[in-house]
Amino acid sequence: MIQIKENIFTQITKQQAKGYSPLVLAFLGDGVYELLVRQKLISKAESVGMPVRKLHSQTVEKVRASYQAKGVRSIESLLSEEEADILRRGRNANSYVPKSASVSDYRLATGLETLFGYLHLIGEHERIQELFEVICNGC
Which residues contact 74 (CB under 8 A, 6 or more apart)? Predict the structure, then answer.
């Protein structure tokens, strides 16, 4: 599987990253998470020759709020106090909740995306990978 080894953007300090709003961090983290899902899917042997339409539908399944919310529950006990605080900030941020998701699932998913965005900005790519592997165990 392809792993993100280095940040193509300038790495910033934890203090600078904490200065971003949780929803901005979630915006970035959403992209980071989806890229990891796509990489995971195409790295699987059965994905070779799979129609892009099917890869897309599998990606949508893994990036939806209900899947991410379940993922948060699987990593909560592994988070440092700082990571849990970042996740909490994202979870508590006021945002639009689409009809396709429950409020609780959407808030947890936003918290996860906030955490991934934060970790990406501070260059903690190995940590993102560790957490993602727990979330995606078997996907």
Answer: 134, 135, 137
